[in-house]
Design brief:
Layout (H helix, E strand, L loop, with lengths): L3 E2 L4 E2 L10 H14 L12 H8 L3 H14 L2 E4 L3 E4 L3 H4 L2 H9 L3 E3 L11 H14 L14 H15 L8 E4 L1 H12 L4 E6 L3 H9 L3 E8 L2 E2 L9 E4 L13 H14 L2 E5 L23 E6 L11 E4 L5 H12 L4 H12 L2 H24 L5 E2 L6 E5 L3 H10 L2 E5 L14 E5 L8 H14 L1
Parallel strand pairs: 5-16, 7-8, 7-10, 10-11, 11-12
Antiparallel strand pairs: 1-2, 3-4, 6-13, 8-9, 12-13, 14-15, 15-17, 16-17
Helix pairs in contact: 1-3, 2-3, 6-12, 7-12, 8-9, 8-11, 13-15
The structure holds pyridoxal-5'-phosphate.
């Protein structure tokens, strides 16, 4: 739904998702308008009564939204002069941010990031306030390298019910995102050869190498990683819920083959569950870890559900690895920042995290459907059952990318993901549908459609 904030001349794009509610939708729309400069600093906003009438919401809803944004610092309210847009120096004059914005392509369908505009700022602020108000004094001191017990306990319950992970709090280590978990494990494995999916994320291969490991490619086919090819390797990193970047869900037969390999050879499975919450065709596929908790290290992250900026991830370890990983964490950075951990624990315990994930799932599903509406029947689109990206097959990747670039459209290149690039590889574009702001998405899809039709 598009609405017009008359008098100020701002198109507010008040979109409310199921489960989100009008007040939260209004807060988000106003916050976005301030952040991206459509509401300039000093702009005087209409009185709550008028805003409520224009938008067809109650006056209480309009007032609550203003109050929230005043509390967050986006608006100021002064007796006599009404509510105005605050001056935000970090948004106005932050040179690196401005440079980053200038580098941003016109249409961004690159994979990797969620819709950061959906970050639940109000709920996070509430959780942070509560966390600070109730934190014991010792929370401000050095703590357990595994992380705060409040968060490990909250995650233990959440991962059990949402992802089928067997996760006693004493076997969880909180990390600075997935990437730190991978780095710590590589160090603990002490130079071992680690199998990684081919294709896979080049950045993660580099993380393994820089932490002393060597990388062995393992093939991925239409059933997922070829577990039968692992032989006597020590460890394998996999993305079973939604293979990155092909989007394949690991077939039940391969899940079994993988756990059989680990049991028979003493191998370790490293499960990267980066977007497992977002499954669209049925209930999320449970984590592999639940089938073999003694053989699997489960790694999860808040990067897709909340935002990469938080740098919050978690590892659930088999008993024999807990002490070694906690020791590696201690010698890396003592432990992850504590107050953010307490806020996330609060978000999970209050069920605001579940509500947010549910609302995001609906939104991404809608985006996935829009992508299919635009491309289906004309192009082969894979990996659509889950996650925030799909793989679109093309006859010639280079040609498609040149056309995309000419249109100001950025997408992922399948070619970048092979361990050894070369002729004869399948050709495809990795299309992320998490990143664009809601109002920019339909146009980005139109451009993608045109690019593919011409390629
Ligand atoms: C395959 C894969 N794994 C994990 C992650 C999450 O990494 P982190 O938690 O370090 O942000 C991502 C993020 O893009 C990813 O693409």
């Amino acid at each position: 739904m598009n609405e017009f904030l008359a008098g100020v001349g701002v198109d507010l794009h008040l979109e409310t998702d199921d489960g989100e509610g009008r007040r939260v939708g209004l807060e988000r729309a106003l916050r976005d308008a301030v952040r991206d400069g459509r509401l300039a600093p000093g702009t005087r906003l209409p009185a709550t009564r008028r805003l409520a009438t224009e938008l067809g919401v109650s006056r209480g809803t309009a007032k609550a939204a203003y109050d929230q944004l005043v509390a967050e610092g986006y608006l100021t309210a002064r007796q006599g002069s009404g509510t105005q847009v605050a001056s935000l120096p970090s948004l106005d004059a932050d040179a690196p941010e401005a440079a980053a914005r200038a580098r941003t392509p016109r249409f961004d369908l690159r994979p990797g990031s969620p819709d950061v505009g959906a970050f639940p700022a109000a709920a996070w602020l509430r959780a942070l306030r509560r966390a600070i108000a109730t934190a014991p004094l010792l929370a401000y001191d050095y703590g357990d390298p595994r992380g705060r017990i409040e968060l490990r306990t909250a995650l233990s319950g959440y991962l059990g019910r949402a992802r089928g992970v067997i996760a006693p709090p004493e076997r969880i280590v909180i990390t600075s995102g997935y990437v730190q978990g991978l780095a710590l494990l590589t160090r603990v494995l002490d130079g071992a050869a680690i199998a990684m999916e081919d294709p896979g994320l080049p950045f993660h291969r580099e993380v393994v190498r820089r932490n002393g490991g060597s990388v062995v490619p393992v093939r991925v086919d239409e059933r997922g990683v070829c577990a039968q090819e692992l032989g006597d390797l020590k460890a394998v990193v996999v993305t079973p819920a939604h293979q990155y970047p092909t989007g394949v869900t690991l077939h039940p037969e391969r899940r079994r083959a993988l756990t059989d390999w680990a049991r028979a050879r003493g191998g370790l499975i490293v499960e990267d569950d980066y977007d497992g919450e977002f499954r669209y065709d049925r209930q999320p596929v449970g984590a592999l870890q639940g089938m073999a908790p003694g053989q699997v290290v489960y790694l999860g992250t808040a990067s897709k559900t909340l935002g990469p900026a938080l740098r919050l991830g978690w590892m659930v370890l088999p008993p024999h690895l807990v002490d070694a990983v906690a020791d590696a964490k201690l010698h890396s950075d003592h432990h992850t920042e504590s107050i953010g951990q307490l806020a996330l624990a609060e978000l999970i315990d209050s069920h605001a995290y579940d509500r947010h994930v549910r609302a995001c799932r609906l939104r991404y599903r809608r985006r996935r459907d829009q992508l299919l509406d635009r491309l289906a029947g004309r192009h082969d689109v894979r990996g659509i059952a889950a996650g925030l990206h799909a793989l679109v097959e093309v006859p010639d990747e280079e040609v498609a990318l040149k056309r995309a670039e000419a249109e100001g459209l950025a997408v992922g290149h399948l070619a970048d993901h092979w361990h050894t690039p070369g002729a004869g590889r399948p050709q495809g574009l990795v299309v992320g549908y998490g990143t664009p702001r809601e109002r920019a998405y339909p146009e980005a899809l139109e451009v993608l459609g045109k690019v593919l039709e011409g390629a």
